[in-house]
Amino acid sequence: MKRFLLIVLALAAGAAIASAQPRALGIRAGWGTDVDYEHTIVNDNFMEFTLGMGFGMGETLTPYLSAAALYNFMIARPDWTPRGTWGFYAGPGAGVFFTRDWAAGGIVGDIGLEFTFWFPLQLSLDVRPALMFGNGGIRTDLIPNFALGVRYAF
Questions:
Q1: pTM across the whole model
Q2: Cβ distance 12 to 26 under 8 Å?
């Protein structure tokens, strides 16, 4: 019974801590479109998870599905405006791509600038380079991926 109560208390504490952290949900649109979720971890650093689809930039516009998870470090928060907050961020992560002909996984990165308004809207502009390894060798034809993010911050 003690073990059960400890597990319940640990889960409740984890849920309380997770719900107290700033989050954002929206889309990241560039060559493809991603559903994007950000969750602040500590010191303004945040995890970012994306699930997307788009078209490759090779000779043929091959449709693809992608997923990525990144840990972004908040590098600076300049005080450029009296309302809202700016932030420069960058971080490493991992990702996967799937098309009907091949699959690849590898290392992705993120470098960007974001602005969170005084109301629950966040805009960002970033570049996401990647190095993918798969059954077709090293894939670089989908990258770098420049994108504009529009998110609901809560």
A1: 0.81
A2: no
